Amino acid sequence: MVNVGLPAKPQPRPAASATGAPAGATSRPPYRPPALRARLRRTAVVGLPVLAALALGAWGLDRGGMWRDEAVSLQVGRRTVPQIWRLLHDVDAVHGLYYLLLHAVLAVHPGEVVLRLPSLCAAAGTAGLVAALGMRLVRPRVGLWAGLLYAVTPMAGHYAQEGRSYAIVAAGAAGATLLFVRAVQGGGPWWPYGAVLALTCWLHEFAVLLLLAHAVSLALARAGRRVWRGWAGAAVAVVAGLLPMVAVSRGQAAQVAWLRAPTAETAERLLQRFLGPSDAVFWVCLGLAVLGLQGLVGRREVTCAGVALPVMVVPPAALMLASQFSPLYVDRYVLYALAGAPLLVACGAERVAGAVGRLCAGGPGSPAGRRSPCPALTGVLAVALSLLHQLPLLQKDREPGHRPDDLGAVSRAAARGLVAGDPVLFLPGPMRNVALTYPRAFRGTRDVALVAGAAESGTLYGREAGPREVRRRLARLDRVWVVADGRQLAGRRAPRDPVERAKATVLGQQFVARREAVRGGVTVRLYVRPLSRPPGPPSPPPRPVRW
Predict the structure, then answer these.
(1) Looking at the whole model, is its pTM more than 0.85?
(2) pLDDT tens digits for 41-54?
(3) Strand 423-427 to 479-485 pairing
């Protein structure tokens, strides 16, 4: 029987626990508003790839030596601004903005690690931007997978540890692509996109090929006239701002005269570097990338595949095609196209996760599955496994000998043989880069061919005397140390410059080799003038001696 006439008897309240919650109540996590949870999720999606790229890039950052291009960055960055400006009128105009950036960075400390820090930070930023792209185009876990994939890709790690502009260009291109997607999706202003891309092109002019990729993305999305007008205005401004650099760099085309036209093997090698140099990782990533292409056409909106595929394919393909007529292609020039590969792979992984979810109860296809962190964590685990599989490649890449040359090792070999007052000859002249980068090893020595130093003459390696003067200077010497390209000493590369021919001729006819040390492709050799040259053919050079 229910008594409706009397007031209900008050029930005793349960005692409060030590934490302030009623006794017997179940513990719950603190309440977070949906907006805060979404912000934390976005921060984690972008932040984790950034941290992963920073950790991998910092591993082995100090290799104890630089290769020749890094050495140029260091010695030019240590010059004054007027000296850098004078140099750019003769060579390396395409790297002018980067050299000015390095000038400010190296003012803190002119060392190898500091030289590479801008590239390391840029690579980490690119990983975060790739994650932001995946999150905006698909969903957060796709962004997380794509960003982590970029961070663990050996090609990205290689240039994260190189004191050149290419990692910074990649960051600028990824940032411009994110601004491009925002402008297309949200109808916002186009000037931020144009400004970032213009600045990126001034770091390296071949970043302008990204405009072609974005045009293809607009065509695939069947964008309206308003979007096309906004993009075209930004593109015209970028190209117009780049014209002065193009005009100057065309006059410096001799710097890339050593390049050769790319072949089908070149394209295959680049694809393997994009998707993973080891076979197991490559084939898995290739399969996922193909799956990620589903829905490429037919939708009136920008899609992950519609952005990633053009970024990955169009700039390298355009540069390779142009290089069939005038060779300009080097894979590092299109490093920024790498950002498209992990996006495509992550897109394919999302399709696999969706298919599995539809087959399994409580999977991603159901409401419970959409809230489950298991698919995202599974993808992170797969990226970690790919990292472990490629760990030997990453470790090898951090060895000084894995670069084209190691000028630090050359300088140490020279320091063990040279003494103050010794004459030194560089063959060819650009080998003087060793002395400019590591001057302590050559302190007190005499540069036989030098007329004016590199900074004073506004050149990369200094100005040398003419052939007749070089012969006259060598004629007064009884011994000379030679720092040379090993291919020239072995006769595999005949010098074209008259000064270099004069050096090689005098050494071959008037001197004999006594001692040498070989470090990679560079030879440090002592030549002495014989009291009398014996008849018959010259004796072969001595076996390399480590000292």
Answers:
(1) yes
(2) 889 999 999 999 99
(3) parallel
